[in-house]
């Protein structure tokens, strides 16, 4: 707290000293001679070399505003679809001049109607800004045929563990948004959702390690916002994409996006389908050791083969009604249906301490799952004045339904192949429903002196119902297995409010302070055992930012944020979820939320080199803790609050234009983490450093061809109680523009050297295990995208987002 207090005092002192300085504000209005032009691209250029200084878009009234902390000679460029590019007269900004007004801009149409308009832009794959990193998905041909999860894996600073859980800059606990709206699932189910969502649906991915107070405080590692494609013209327009791939198993996908706007009505929608077959192997070795002497008592060897087939149908449609120039009302309906089938075969050998076979268990299982999600959002945007003062509001309802039907067959033999006990047959059904209700409102008010005030509130209510119904086959009759059957209810209400203030104090200094308050009221009830718990707590989450721009080549920023990561709903369920005869998961109703303090210092040099240094401290960190029962050779995983974690992260990102047609991006990251606390009654202290890098290079050649080579490497790393070995991948891709740049053909060779295989180990107290998990990762993907458009310039609706993002990111199936 002393460090936090000192940090805020230092920021206040610096901002106070800088407050007397000023910067230049450039304003203007754009029309077509009859009405204002919305979403026109405004670019501020230096007159000396026409280099870009800053960019913005016009609002619904055709107005724009640019603020720059520098003097000099400039001109304005205005561009939008259907009109000729406009250049203003050159003007000069001098010291002491706080504002400059561009004379009204009237655009001249190229033609009254644009037939088959196609817009192409050469955006870089990675854009680095002070407050976030932006991944432009279509800028990389190696993204063709990938799922969203595979795309995230090759993004800078992001890593996946053996189960597909996402970490960012060395920290777990990432908040996932999709268009600012819920990501529906968490844990294994979020992984399944992202595996079955085609990357071709996406426009950008935004990575924010220290988001401001208007975002929910959830997510120790920050926020990943997955932005889907949006279209920008009057009339109708859209795109269609199809593709497929082949590794050991095949995959296929297709998606379409449509938009129609005429007058005050804007209609939009998209649909995607992703089908995927996959296979994996799991080799697991456990040494059961005496807790006192550490001597090996027995050896457990397990080999598991699994084959799965999944399909995902995702949809979204909605409408915006422009009631007036200041009022927009909209609704959005979205959802998905994802069936999945998986079959496994498992061989478990139990040996003595010398490696002599004692018993063998053969097991097969089948699992049919279906996930059904539905969401509805009503939103309002009310502009109060033309200066940017506005109010936005969202009302959300989300329904999540999950059904799982499992069959487990186990056969038990001695070392000679003779039966040692009756066969065991188990049938499990695991229905789950979750309902989420959310209301939120945000207010923005630009103030004099290049300042902006923001405030808002949010209230959400979550109801979850997880059931587990197990039957065992006894004497040819299915009978209820009460030792496994479980029914768990959980309700949660979170109420939040925030204020945020940012100001451009001078042409060199800017700052932002925010404070968010969140109150949580929760209740859990396990009906089968009458176990109940109640929690009620209120916490504050401050954020602070300081920006310093000493000259045209250097930008610095310093930020602080306090964040929370609440347990997933199902992780609070105190009953068992069986994976096989010898492995299960168990919930923990006594889990507490984990709290993190994050400080980050960043520097951008000349727009191409970004360096960041961050420190994080996470208290009551939630980790998977492995325990074992020696007498039955069983192991189970339980979430626990394991004292604290401290971590340092240093990252460097460089985007280098090697020539006019050849560019490269290099991302380097180093982490050092320390985990310490009580695990299973014993003290655990684990410390380690790791290194990772993402590199890509693109070459454009004549004829519309683009070639790309990219890959990543991650060294051995500590992940709580598990140590993972190094991971690496190398990809090659090519794309070709066709049909007068209306279409694109892409081919992607993913992990063509077959380098990526997960392995790791865990060793503490009497736990001693190693794991090897190869999977079907080497793939060839081919995709074809066709874009069509007929209309005039417009903008996509500003708001297709809602307020239930935090709650849905914690949805997790299982019991």
Name the descriptors.
815 residues, mainly beta, Immunoglobulin-like, Maltoporin, Chain A, 28-stranded antiparallel sheet, five-stranded antiparallel sheet, 4 helices, 49 strands, disordered N terminus
What would your notes on this structure say?
There is one protein chain. With 815 residues, the chain is mainly beta. It has two domains: 21-106, Immunoglobulins (Immunoglobulin-like); 126-808, TonB-dependent receptor, beta-barrel domain (Maltoporin, Chain A), CATH 2.40.170. 4% of the residues lie in helices and 63% in strands. It is built from four helices and 49 strands. It has a 28-stranded antiparallel β-sheet that branches. A hairpin with a 4-residue loop joins strand 22 (327-352) and strand 23 (357-383).
Short description:
Helices cover 4% and strands 63% of the residues.
Please give the share of residues in helix: under 10%
The CATH superfamily label of the largest domain reads: TonB-dependent receptor, beta-barrel domain
The secondary structure category is: mainly beta
Query: Quick one: overall form?
Result: globular
| DSSP E strands, number | 49
Q: Can you tell me the CATH architecture of the largest domain?
A: Beta Barrel
Low-confidence stretches: 1-22, 111-121, 793-801
Strand content: over 45%
Span of the ends, CA to CA: 38 Å
* Secondary structure tally, helices: 4
How many discrete domains?
2
Rg on CA atoms, Å: 28 Å
Q: Look at the structure and give the CATH class of the largest domain.
A: Mainly Beta
Write down the overall mean pLDDT: 83
Q: What's the story with the biggest beta sheet?
A: 28 strands, antiparallel
CATH topology of the largest domain: Maltoporin, Chain A
């Amino acid at each position: 707290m002393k460090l936090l207090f000192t940090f805020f005092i230092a920021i206040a002192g610096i901002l106070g000293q800088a407050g007397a300085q000023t910067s230049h504000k450039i304003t203007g209005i754009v029309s077509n001679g009859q009405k204002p032009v919305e979403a026109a691209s405004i670019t501020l250029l230096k007159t000396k070399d026409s280099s870009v200084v800053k960019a913005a878009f016009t609002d619904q009234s055709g107005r724009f505003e640019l603020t720059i902390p520098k003097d000099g000679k400039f001109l304005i460029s205005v561009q939008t679809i259907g009109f000729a590019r406009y250049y203003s007269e050159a003007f000069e900004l001098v010291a002491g001049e706080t504002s400059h007004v561009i004379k009204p801009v009237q655009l001249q149409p190229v033609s009254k109607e644009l037939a088959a308009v196609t817009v192409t832009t050469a955006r870089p794959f990675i854009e680095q800004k002070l407050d976030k990193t932006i991944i432009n998905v279509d800028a990389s041909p190696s993204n063709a045929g990938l799922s969203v999860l595979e795309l995230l894996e090759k993004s800078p600073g992001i890593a996946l563990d053996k189960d597909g859980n996402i970490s960012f800059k060395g920290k777990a606990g990432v908040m996932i948004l999709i268009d600012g709206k819920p990501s529906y699932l968490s844990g294994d189910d979020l992984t399944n959702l992202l595996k079955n969502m085609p990357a071709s649906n996406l426009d950008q991915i935004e990575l924010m390690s220290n988001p401001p107070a208007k975002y929910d405080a959830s997510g120790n590692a920050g926020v990943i916002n997955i932005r889907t494609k949006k279209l920008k013209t009057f009339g109708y327009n859209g795109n269609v994409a199809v593709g497929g791939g082949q590794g050991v198993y095949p995959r296929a996908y297709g998606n379409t996006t449509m938009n129609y706007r005429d007058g005050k009505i804007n209609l939009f929608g998209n649909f995607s389908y992703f089908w995927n077959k996959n296979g994996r192997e799991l080799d697991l070795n456990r040494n059961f050791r005496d807790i006192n002497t550490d001597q090996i008592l027995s050896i457990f060897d397990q080999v598991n083969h699994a084959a799965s087939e999944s399909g995902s149908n995702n949809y979204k449609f909605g409408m915006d009604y422009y009631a007036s120039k200041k009022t927009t009302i909209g609704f959005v309906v979205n959802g998905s249906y994802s069936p999945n089938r998986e079959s496994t075969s498992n061989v478990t050998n139990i040996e003595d301490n010398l490696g002599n076979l004692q018993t063998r268990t053969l097991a097969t299982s089948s699992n049919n799952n279906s996930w059904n999600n539905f969401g509805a959002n009503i939103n309002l945007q009310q502009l109060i004045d033309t200066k940017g003062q506005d109010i936005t509001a969202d009302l959300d309802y989300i329904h999540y339904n999950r059904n799982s039907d499992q069959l487990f067959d186990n056969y038990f033999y001695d070392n000679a192949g003779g039966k040692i006990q009756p066969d065991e047959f188990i049938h499990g059904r695991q229905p789950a429903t979750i309902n989420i209700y959310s209301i939120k409102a945000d207010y923005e008010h630009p103030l004099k002196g290049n300042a902006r005030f923001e405030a808002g509130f949010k209230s959400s209510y979550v109801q979850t119902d997880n059931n587990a119904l197990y039957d065992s086959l006894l004497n040819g009759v299915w009978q209820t297995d009460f030792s496994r059957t479980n029914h768990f209810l959980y309700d949660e209400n979170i109420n939040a409010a925030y204020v945020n203030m940012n100001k451009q104090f001078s042409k060199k200094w800017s700052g932002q302070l925010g404070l968010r308050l969140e109150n949580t009221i929760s209740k859990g009830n396990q009906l089968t055992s009458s176990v109940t718990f109640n929690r009620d707590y209120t916490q504050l989450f401050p954020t602070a930012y300081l920006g310093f721009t000493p000259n045209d080549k250097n930008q610095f920023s310093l930020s602080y944020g306090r964040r929370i990561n609440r347990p997933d709903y199902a992780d609070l369920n105190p009953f068992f979820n069986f994976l096989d005869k010898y492995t299960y998961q168990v919930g923990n109703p006594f889990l507490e939320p984990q709290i993190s303090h994050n400080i980050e210092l960043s520097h951008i040099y000349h727009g191409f080199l970004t360096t960041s240094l961050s420190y994080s401290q996470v208290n009551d960190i939630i980790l998977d803790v492995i325990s074992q029962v020696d007498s039955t050779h069983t192991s189970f995983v339980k979430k626990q609050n394991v004292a604290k974690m401290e971590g340092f992260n240093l990252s460097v990102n460089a985007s280098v234009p090697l020539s006019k047609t050849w560019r490269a991006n290099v991302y380097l990251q180093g982490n050092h983490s320390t985990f310490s606390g009580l695990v299973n009654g014993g003290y655990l202290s684990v410390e380690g450093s790791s290194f990772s890098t993402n590199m890509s290079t693109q070459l454009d050649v004549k004829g519309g061809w683009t070639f790309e080579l990219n890959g990543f490497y991650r060294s051995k790393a500590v992940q709580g109680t598990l140590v993972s070995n190094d991971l690496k991948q190398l990809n090659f891709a090519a794309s070709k523009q066709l049909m007068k740049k209306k279409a694109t053909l892409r081919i992607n060779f993913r992990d063509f050297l077959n380098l990526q295989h997960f392995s790791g180990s865990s060793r503490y107290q009497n736990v001693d295990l190693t794991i090897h998990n190869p999977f079907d990762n080497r793939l060839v993907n081919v995709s074809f995208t066709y874009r069509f458009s007929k209309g005039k310039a417009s903008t996509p609706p500003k708001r297709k987002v809602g307020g239930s993002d935090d709650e849905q990111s914690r949805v997790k199936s299982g019991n």
